[in-house]
Amino acid sequence: MIRAQMLSNAGIAHLRQPVRIDEDTIRDALISEGAAPRDIADTLAEFKARKASAPGLTLGCDQILALKSTIYSKPHDRAEAHRHLSQLSGQTHHLYAAAVIYEDAQPVWRHVGVARMTMHKLSDDEITAYLDQAWPAVATSVGAYQAEVLGARLFARIEGDWFSVLGLPLLELCSYLRLRGWRFT
Predict the structure, then answer these.
(1) In the chain, what are the domain boundaries?
(2) Peptide bond into 136 cis (omega under 30)
(3) Residues with catalytic annotation?
(4) Is the per-residue pLDDT at 102 higher than 90?
(5) How far apart are CA 113 and CA 130, in angstroms?
(6) Rounded to whole angstroms, how far apart are CA atoms 150 and 77?
């Protein structure tokens, strides 16, 4: 939903079409092959763009969170969200936001944005209090936080592309569309 809102706010007319791919299987296979987090995000975004591909431009996006060599997914339940936040507490992790555009069933553009996120050291009580307020909304977010709302208080520093934190490298996408002569609404 946040990506659709970002596109609308930037004046990019679009239709939202969620697709189903087996993200867990694809991600796990890439991890077992030693793929870099950036490549995992790019591959998942491409799978989504390919699956939704239709006449015109089709955008696929994905976001990966990496803490050192560990890749995080969206939490399956509140207990897992608590574990994720405990592991991220006091650490610096990276968010990789990939976008791939397909046209005529072929990829024509791709970009992976990155943000470096440093979280405050959080006590179990702070994590519980945060989840009391933020759950279940954060269940759909890697890392179990939404930095654009209540999750902002969890961070000491955020470096890099803010739009990538939100899941879409929007500035690079807008630049590509401008080069194509896109008419923004």
Answers:
(1) 2-179
(2) yes
(3) 62
(4) yes
(5) 27
(6) 19
